[in-house]
Amino acid sequence: MQQTKPPWLERIISSHILSIPPYVPGKPVAELQREMGLSEATKMASNENPLGPSPFAIKAMERHLREAHIYPESSAPDLRSGLASRLGVSPDWIILGNGSDEIMQMATHIFIQPQDEAVMSEHDFSMYRICVQAFGGRPVRVPMTSHRVDLPALTKVITERTRLIFLAVPNSPTGTIVSRAEFESFLKDLPRDRLILVLDEAYREYVQDRECPIGVDYLSSELPILVLRTFSKIYGLAGLRAGYGVSQPWLIELLNRVRPPFNVNSLAQVGALAALDDIEHVQRSRKLTRDGMDYLAAEFKSLGLQFIPSQANFITFRAGKGAKECYEALLREGVIVRHLASFGMEEWIRVTIGKEEQNRRFISALKKTIPARA
């Protein structure tokens, strides 16, 4: 039964809420199979780890299943201690979230009031903009240069109302990074008296370039920095929704004031802690990504397709004006990728690196769509 929105809704709901476009996730495999009548499909749209969860994590969660009726420890002390040991900080420098995007929301809740501003790149994770708009703030989006974040341009739009800067390294959906020298120059140019830098490092474990800055190395800076990471990518725990933030204790204490109780479930806590020790799984995931990236890049070159070299676990290529048609044709072949129209990149498609057979299936399907794009 369909119902129209009640006529009084716009009178009582804040306009900044009504103006937020819903987040567009990747299409689930089951949904595509139902729509297309397919018996098999492969998803390469959401940057999930095709190797799945760490075996250490699976065993740890199985041991704790019978305790699922008990509330988790709200502050996740064991996981925070494990992370602190890895990062070389005290546990009071760490906060856990139901995915790192929940911590983004906490930060905007604290620092953004109506008409405050948050600076971000034009083509990046849409949750930055959504979080800011949800609290009545104004997202200030800055064009990228050659698919890279333009750090000097970000500094030029900072005003007295700027409270947050969102910077992803590597950036999604482009997979590009900034250098350590560029980042340090950027930090020097930022005002110290009114804003927080939110540094999103969801894909940090995939980075190969040694010149890429590491957020935790800069936490002693006079500028407050909130470093965000996640267990959703290389650790293969996206379905558990576990992310974490690292920052100075005064900022962590503020974030805890708005953090929901028990926001990270008990299985996520024990699974994430176990995954930290599974070095072999992380190494296998990196190798699979590197090998798959090399294969797809070579195939794109042979097809004459422009692509963006990536430091993450995905690669983005230009399908041109027929990108939507290409995306839909791939769906009919049972391959789910991500058309980047919602990121403001209408001619581009992002592909998660999969297992060898998934990558080959994607390329085979892509070759069938090329005549349709011409």
Question: How is this structure best summarized?
Answer:
The chain has helices at 9-12, 15-18, 29-36, 55-64, 77-87, 100-111, 126-134, 151-156, 180-188, 249-258, 266-276, 279-303, 323-332, 356-373; strands at 42-43, 94-97, 117-121, 138-142, 162-168, 196-200, 225-230, 243-246, 307-308, 314-318, 335-336, 338-339, 348-352. The chain is an alpha/beta fold. 44% of the residues are buried.
Describe the structure.
It is built from 14 helices and 13 strands. It is an alpha/beta fold. The protein has two domains: 9-52 and 280-373, Aspartate Aminotransferase, domain 1, CATH 3.90.1150; 55-276, Type I PLP-dependent aspartate aminotransferase-like (Major domain) (Aspartate Aminotransferase, domain 2). Strands 2-8-7-6-5-3-4 form a seven-stranded mixed β-sheet, with helices on both faces. It has a four-stranded antiparallel β-sheet with strand order 9-10-13-12. A two-stranded parallel sheet has the order 1-11. Strand 12 and strand 13 form a beta hairpin. Helix 5 (77-87) packs parallel to helix 11 (266-276), helix 6 packs parallel to helix 7 (126-134) and helix 12 runs parallel beside helix 14. The longest helix is centred in the last third of the chain and has 25 residues, at 279-303. The protein is globular, with a radius of gyration of 21 Å. The mean pLDDT is 91.
Order of strands in the sheet with most strands: 2-8-7-6-5-3-4
CATH class of the largest domain: Alpha Beta
- The Rg value, from CA coordinates, equals 21 Å
Under CATH, the homologous superfamily of the largest domain reads Type I PLP-dependent aspartate aminotransferase-like (Major domain)
* Uncertain regions spanning at least 5 consecutive residues: none
Average pLDDT confidence is: 91
Summarize the main sheet.
7 strands, mixed
Number of domains: 2
